């Protein structure tokens, strides 16, 4: 199929020329970040489109997801499509070292991972020439104009799933309506997280016949993996102590979590908090905060288990949230006491944990409202609210059990939507 550059908007042609010139500079920046995580040089070169694995035989379906959350959200979808399409092979691309590490631990059958090519003619051209995908699925907000146009020109059919754009992004695209229509026209199907995202895509010029509300893909993911050996060791170490978790916390939130735990300890002196920062590399910073509060702690990254004196257990590792969620009945989800947008409530809900959240959950607005309505989650505003909610549940087993059941049932109901997403993708991408 011929390239569309000649009939593309002028801004797109300018973008192609600019990215061709800027690719070496962009590569130096992304390479530096990957080297900081000890990624091998050969794999870093994947960002320039140099593959490190042979292309598989059979039809290849490519999934692209930029971040950790986006990458993990599609693994269950890939596994389900693999069941539906036994001859298909799968490729998942992402941009960060952390996403690559977590994907490697949960790779579905017949799937391989590569770092995504930079959105420039050389990297994208090399990538497509090697992998030759039959179909491509982009996740959430990854609208790379050149990558989309070149992939469509290669003969592959494209879909956008879990679509969600910030208002800033929507406003930016609407300033260039011809280019927005051109980019969105690359997709045969667009499935949005909610009705607002559907309206945003339509306002940007998307074809109404191709845009549908598909729900939040993260709600359809399988429960997080649990390390049974670690779980058993933690259960033995903690016994029947009162326990709660603060997960995926950010700077400015740990202070409030630790302050709330101080109040919990006043009522339950033997209580333990499992604190799992969103970014484990902040371990030293969070440890210092805990010690300034006068609390004893043990650290997962040091291979320690909590003992009878450990008031806080710092879970400063990657990929173990499933184990922590299986351990504790109450989970506070971070990214919500500050204007970060919140994190995935389906993961703790699937584990049967009652959930606490701050008010800033724009990333999951369509999820938290019904979850709170069912009683599976409670919104808190600050450290005082958080402490009161934890104490209320720790002191009342029956309401806590009701909240845990409501959260688990909510997650189970949402998982049933995955079959519909698979059907829509297979039809729109002509995959059988």
Can you walk me through this structure?
46% of the residues lie in helices and 16% in strands. It is of the alpha/beta class and 432 residues long. The protein has 2 domains: 5-215 and 417-428, 3-Layer(aba) Sandwich (Rossmann fold), CATH 3.40.50; 228-415, Glycogen Phosphorylase B (Rossmann fold). The strands form 2 sheets. The protein has a 7-stranded parallel beta sheet with strand order 3-2-1-4-5-6-7, with helices on both faces. The protein has a 7-stranded parallel beta sheet with strand order 10-11-9-8-12-13-14, with helices on both faces. Helix 15 links the parallel strand 12 and strand 13. Pathway: Bacterial outer membrane biogenesis; LPS core biosynthesis. It catalyses: lipid IVA (E. coli) + CMP-3-deoxy-beta-D-manno-octulosonate = alpha-Kdo-(2->6)-lipid IVA (E. coli) + CMP + H(+). Its EC number is 2.4.99.12. One of its GO terms (molecular function) is transferase activity.
């Amino acid at each position: 199929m011929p390239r569309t550059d000649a009939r593309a908007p002028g801004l797109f042609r300018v973008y192609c020329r600019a990215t061709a010139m800027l690719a070496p500079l962009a590569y130096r920046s992304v390479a530096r970040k990957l080297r900081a995580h000890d990624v091998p040089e050969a794999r870093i070169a994947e960002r320039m489109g140099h593959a490190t694995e042979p292309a598989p035989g059979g039809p290849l379906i490519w999934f692209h997801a930029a971040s950790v959350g986006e990458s993990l959200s599609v693994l269950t979808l890939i596994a389900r499509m693999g069941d539906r399409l036994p001859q298909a092979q799968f490729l998942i691309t992402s941009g960060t070292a952390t996403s690559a590490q977590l994907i490697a631990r949960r790779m579905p059958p017949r799937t391989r991972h590569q770092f995504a090519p930079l959105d420039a003619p050389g990297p994208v051209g090399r990538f497509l020439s090697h992998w030759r995908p039959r179909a491509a699925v982009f996740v959430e907000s990854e609208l790379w104009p050149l990558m989309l146009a070149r992939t469509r020109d290669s003969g592959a059919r494209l879909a956008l799933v879990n679509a969600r754009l910030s208002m800033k992004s929507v406003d930016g695209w609407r300033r260039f309506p011809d280019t927005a229509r051109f980019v969105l026209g690359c997709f045969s199907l667009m499935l949005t997280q909610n009705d607002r995202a559907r309206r945003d895509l339509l306002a940007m010029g998307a074809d109404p016949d191709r845009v549908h509300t598909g729900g939040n893909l993260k709600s359809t993911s399988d429960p997080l993996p649990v390390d049974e050996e670690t779980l058993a060791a933690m259960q033995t170490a903690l016994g029947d102590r009162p326990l709660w978790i603060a997960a995926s916390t950010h700077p400015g939130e740990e202070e409030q979590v630790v302050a709330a735990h101080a109040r919990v300890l006043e009522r339950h002196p033997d209580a333990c908090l499992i604190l799992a920062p969103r970014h484990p590399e902040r371990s030293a910073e969070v440890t210092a905060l805990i010690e300034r509060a006068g609390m004893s702690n043990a650290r997962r990254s040091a291979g320690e288990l909590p003992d009878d004196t450990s008031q806080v257990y710092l879970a400063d590792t990657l990929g173990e949230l499933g184990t922590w969620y299986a351990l504790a009945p109450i989970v506070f989800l971070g990214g919500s006491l500050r204007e970060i947008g919140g994190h995935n409530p389906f993961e703790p809900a699937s584990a049967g944990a009652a959930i606490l959240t701050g008010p800033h959950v724009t990333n999951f607005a369509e999820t938290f409202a019904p979850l709170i309505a069912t009683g599976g989650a409670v919104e808190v505003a600050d450290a005082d609210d958080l402490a009161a909610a934890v104490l209320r549940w720790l002191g009342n087993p029956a309401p806590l059990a009701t909240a845990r059941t409501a959260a688990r049932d909510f997650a189970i109901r949402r998982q049933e939507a995955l079959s519909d997403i698979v059907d829509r993708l297979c039809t729109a991408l002509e995959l059988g």
